[in-house]
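User: Here's a chain of 175 residues. Predict its fold as tokens.
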Amino acid sequence: MDINIDSIFATIIQISNSFLGSGFFWFIKFILAIYVVVLFVDIVLLLIVRGLGGDLRNVVKGAPMPLVSKKKMQRTWQEIENRLKTKSISQYKVAILEADKLVDEVLMNIGFGGVNMKERLEKANVNQVEEIDNLIEAHEIRNKIIQDDNFHVDKTEAARVIELYREFLDNMEII
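Assistant: Prediction complete.
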């Protein structure tokens, strides 16, 4: 039984050519072409809706970034952290107040409206600001510092609150 390999390849090529020229394969190519065009149009429309002409970070993060200098923010943050190195309760409180002010400024600059930080935080959601719960907690501690002269903040608590603000600023790539 002698099988001719050339005739097998010729038969395979003939079958492939007849399949590629068939109406069924043409229909599959037509459906795939429509799918590719629709997919391309969807991508273009998505980029237009998200604002392709704008800042790429705005498109990716969903919010514009603050217009202030990153170095200025980093210097301000370093001053806040230096306040934690002291042994003064009043400096711990000032550090929390300054960190809150810095985060409030960032929230305002990225487009969260409202008269104060509480209103800006109420307008945000987890999809926009991942650390929203932490910021609310830290802001409540800030409010206790402002409203109660006898509110005590030790170094450990101050460092924990500052870390809550830091997570937000790190995530926003500000510090």
